[in-house]
Amino acid sequence: MRPFCFLFLLLFFTSCSENSDEIRIVIWHQKPPGEREVLETAVKKYMAEHPNVKVIVLYKETEELRSAYIISAVAGKGPDIVYGPSDQIGVFEVLEIIKPLEEIFDTGFINQFDPRGLLWYKGHLYQIGDQIGNHLFLLYNKKLVKKPPEKMSELIRIGKELTKDIDGDGKIDQYGLVWNYTEPFFFIPFLTGFGGWVMDSTGNPTLNTEATVRALQFVRDLKDKYKIVPRECDYNTADALFKEGRAGMLINGPWSVGGYKKAGVDFGIAKIPRVDETGLWPAPMVAIKGYSINVNVSERKLPYVIDLFKYLVSPEVQLEHTKALGTIPTHKKALESEIVKADPLIQASISQMEVGKPMPVVPELRAIWDAMRPYYQAVLGGTISPEEAAEKMQQLAIKKIEEMNE
């Protein structure tokens, strides 16, 4: 054998031997930019302390993550750890593509977490959150709003005062309120404020109600009657207007806080104002965002995945998210930290969360979102009445659920 051939084979087999000792763990997640940076920093630190472990972190949009994970996991593949909101768990459970975590972690470990940060479903623990909430609240620019409104009538009054053409060119430059009102998720606080909800205890849609009609009419009135919100406003538009100081109030969630701090906005957080007609506080959907383990993880790799999982939900890593983004941690030790207790923004977020309603994790919720969206947007566009929209939402939701269960 020629010397260079022997050397090549020696290097090849040495490389294979070295690579065989390396444990590769893949995480798929849908964390927004601020959270993404904290996760990547934490993973780099972990790998520095565990040189035999290579952690690959891949970001995917929420819907892409859900569908891609289903396809890959059903085929026996996919990431080792998947991170996302709790509403994806119902689908994952039906398809049996995530591991029951109570069979992996002992009671002592599980009890370290606030019960609201643990997602039990059909008797099994399928997700441990690194943050509680994922809910909507009211943010207000302190330069424009000295005291946040406590009632919707106050919000409308303040909104009218703030919505104005500042430079006299005939176009509105500043708005009283902005939010992503095109998405049904952002409609939920208004629906609950008028006493409604999306489904009953058995997963049947409850959209064709007086509460839905009144909530739809109210949201449309904010735009067309009171004219305190832009004629068109998606998430990016609302976000930009608030960052530029051209909106007095904004409805958004904890994932957005870091961006407003970075933009230098002097803001506060408050509960979304009480609905005058019902006396109810708007109840946004409250969920956890957290980690689950792929059912396809091998027995050989599982101990390494468990160790990384424990690190990712540790109080240290959770508090890094809290410091950067104002998220509410799930670990009891982190919740007792002064980082949480002394932060007025976090405390205000907790106050809103406590009047919220748990997000359903049943698969039917996906069908309900899809049924709500076109008719909700049609109401805002003025092409359909709230009454007709509520009826059509209900009909389409029932149809989609039946199709899903065929």
Automatic annotation (TrEMBL):
Q: Which GO terms describe its molecular function?
A: carbohydrate transmembrane transporter activity; maltose binding
According to its UniProt entry, the protein's GO biological process terms are:
maltodextrin transmembrane transport; maltose transport
A GO CC annotation recorded here is: ATP-binding cassette (ABC) transporter complex, substrate-binding subunit-containing
Read off the InterPro entries from this record.
Maltose/Cyclodextrin-bd, SBP
Recite the UniProt keywords alphabetically: Signal, Sugar transport, Transport
What is one Pfam family matched by this protein?
A: SBP_bac_8
Q: Does the keyword Transport apply?
A: yes
Family in the record: Belongs to the bacterial solute-binding protein 1 family.
Q: What is this protein identified as? A: Arabinogalactan oligomer / maltooligosaccharide transport system substrate-binding protein
